[in-house]
Amino acid sequence: MNRRNTAAVALALLTAASVLTACGDDSSADAPTTTSRTTAASSSSADNQQVPTVSNPLDPTSLVSDPCAALSSSQLGELGFAGGETRPNEEFEGEACRWRGSEESLDSVDLTAFVGTTDGLKGVYASKDRSAYFEPTEVAGYPAVYSSVGDGRAMGMCGLWVGVSDQAVLHIMTNLVSAESAEASCGLAADVAEATISTLGG
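Above: the chain sequence. Below: its structure as C-alpha cells.
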C-alpha cells in the first residue's frame, strides 16, 4: 500500500462546488446526483466517451449503510487515522464515514459507496466538462478518476472516484490540513481506495 501517486478527483460536478469551503462539514457536498439525473447526464454526455469498464467487479453494497467497515483497525493504523464516524447523507442514499487523524488533528478522510444511485464511472465521465480538473487513473487494477468542480489540491483537499463495478463507485475525499499538497492528499485518497478494495476482496 502507501502509494503516493499524484492526481486529482470527483464527479460532484452535478452537485455543489461548495466542497472547497464545506469539505470539513458535509461529505455529501461532493456526491453524485440521484439516479434519474445522473442517468440522464450519462446518456447525454458520456455515451461517446471511452469510459473504462470493470473487469473484476466488487459489490460494495454493505458499505452503503456501514461505510466505516471499509477500513480495518490495522489499515487505519497504517494510514495514520483513528476510528471513524458514520454520517448520514441527507440528500443521497447511504452513509458516509469520516476518519480523523486524532482528536487534535483537523485532518480527515471521508468515504461513501454509491450503489444504484449512479451509473458507475459513466456518471463521472458525464460530468467531465464541469470539472476543474479530470485525471483518469487506476487503483489496484480498478479504473478511477480524480476530478472536482473546484481544485483544492494545493490546500490538501483531494477526492477520488473508483469504479468497483460498472454500476457502483466509491468516493474518497481527503482534507489534509497538516499537509497542504496534492501529492499528499491525492496519494492518501489512493491508499484509502486501495485498502477499501482489499476489504471488499479485490
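Residues 182-200 form the longest helix (19 residues).
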